[in-house]
């Protein structure tokens, strides 16, 4: 049977679009807006960046670019495994943090019923999904005490198998499963998603007889949503993961050009980079659809961890990187928009909007004698949210504030796959502009090493000594 994403006309109808009109001087004024000449001045750097990115892909260094093709067969196997095993479980729990959790959450919010866990009909036989994404003791203990462990499966996600947060979650969940169900139950209630060839988790998984899936060595956590990291939980909640990869493949096809005027990922990178260089380092992502709310969270990690770097590739201290901020329309019109409209000229707002929402809901009529209320009746919430987005966009333009919009024809696995890939590729080109390694996170690693030392992990005694020798706090400055 032909899949809809195999139909060229359907794919084109589902193409997400980047609208950058409000980044230009003709719209927001010459003081803050750009000209086409400004953009064209980046052409040689874009061509060089495109060449470097494609060369790195060919060398096997940019694994995220390989996933739309390399994970087709893996996605098929994951789907078959999920469909064969979903009836065994009422609960699917992701044990992971950061890049091992945010993509899972974004997919669930975007593609499943907004009250999926509470709506048995919407689940259609698939288990509920829980992603603790932290080691807060109250929240984790509450979850583990609430779930029927005999009907729960945990996906433990850690490439190294040494992530303190993930492995502490695993140790605790495993102990509770063993206490309640016995040692022999571990292999049936835990999946390991990790490195195939090294690390602690793969060793544990083999000893315990867990089902295992592998994270490619050349794919970092924040780029891993279209590996088993994100695909397994998506498949266990009924999401079409093959369509997700097809969407990413479509965006790769669109972006396989060094012509920045035809490449949305590159044009986005150029304009965001120019804005940062002009003193606008705050990059706000503001979805006007609750479905897309957690894409902003995923984007925040991608941008911050990839582009916030102390050193360039030559080892020179540069301290670069835009600051990503998440917002939600229309909610944050009532909390953040005042700052965006009248505060410092240090921000670019990227709206996410939807042409066709999954549902249409009419606003009920009433109070005909009160004009300030009755005008709403007969309209739809769809209209209200769309109009509020366009009104906020216009208000930003009136205040000479840079903004752009990514439009989704509708929210489905195909359009979400496009979005993920477009922003991952934008990130790669931004790394070329800054001349940094966009695929490591040394600042994060330092904090981890201090924690390892304090918790007495073997090999980190020196970090404990440094931690213990940290400056003492002045009690007079603690009020």
TrEMBL record:
Keyword set includes Cytoplasm: yes
UniProt-listed CDD domains: SIS_PGI_1, SIS_PGI_2
Catalytic activity: alpha-D-glucose 6-phosphate = beta-D-fructose 6-phosphate
Coiled-coil residue spans: none
Cell inner membrane in keyword set: no
Pathway, per record: Carbohydrate degradation; glycolysis; D-glyceraldehyde 3-phosphate and glycerone phosphate from D-glucose: step 2/4; Carbohydrate biosynthesis; gluconeogenesis
Domain of life from the UniProt record: Bacteria
PROSITE patterns xref list: P_GLUCOSE_ISOMERASE_1, P_GLUCOSE_ISOMERASE_3
Its job: Catalyzes the reversible isomerization of glucose-6-phosphate to fructose-6-phosphate.
PANTHER family (alphabetical): GLUCOSE-6-PHOSPHATE ISOMERASE (PTHR11469)
Name used for this protein in its record: Glucose-6-phosphate isomerase
This protein's encoding gene: pgi
